[in-house]
Amino acid sequence: xxxxxxxLIIGLGMGLVFCSCEKDLEKYSGTDYIRFVSVxxxxxxxxxxxxxxxxxxDRIGIEVKVTGEVLDYDREYKVKVNPVSTVQEGVHFNIPxxxxxxxxxxxxxxxxxEVMNTEELKAEKLYLxxxxxxxxxxxxxxxxxxxxxxxxxxxxxxxxxxDEWHETEGLGSYSETKYRxxxxxxxxxxxxxxxxxxxxxxxxxxxxxxxEEAAQGRVIMDENNQPMQVKMVG
Length: 234
Description:
The chain has helices at about 1-25, 50, 165-170, 175-185, 195-215, and strands spanning about 35, 45-50, 55-65, 75, 80, 95, 100, 110-115, 125-135, 140, 145-155. It has about 230 residues and is of the alpha+beta class. This is DUF4843 domain-containing protein.
């Protein structure tokens, strides 16, 4: 019993020490610290152009947080691309210089990374590792929060929910071309964990899009060189 009580006291003490670390930093007015926020939950971001319904470019937001004083003017912070990254700047991503700024009267802000799709992303997953760098305004604190990885890919596979029911009564026969277009038009890539009315609405939205395009003389062809079709009646 005494051993359990002792273990509990030690555990609580360690938790208080950890929690007080950031509070002590906040009280220390001489230095402001910056870190990536998301890495306390996970150390990477996975982005799939296909599942996002994007064909060319998009933006990914990475949150940064400051521990220290809240000031009434903008402050710049610095990031660098770690050489272990497998992506190329200007080909797969860009970071506009004006994005590396903590705006006035804020303790959190967003670093926006522009990402670009390329043909090679259909075959492999590449990644970008960003490292925070100490600057005139900010120092670094927790080593585990100084870096963040962004994984990029455009690979998609047939989802498990696209089963025999879809083949005969839902979306119809599967093809990667159809799945990509369905995601872009319906705004969703997962029909498994939603109620039937929502599922039906998404499928019919896609069906009506195909019909409207055909009515305008722009028949959308599937990978088998036949007009793309949806089986659902409605």
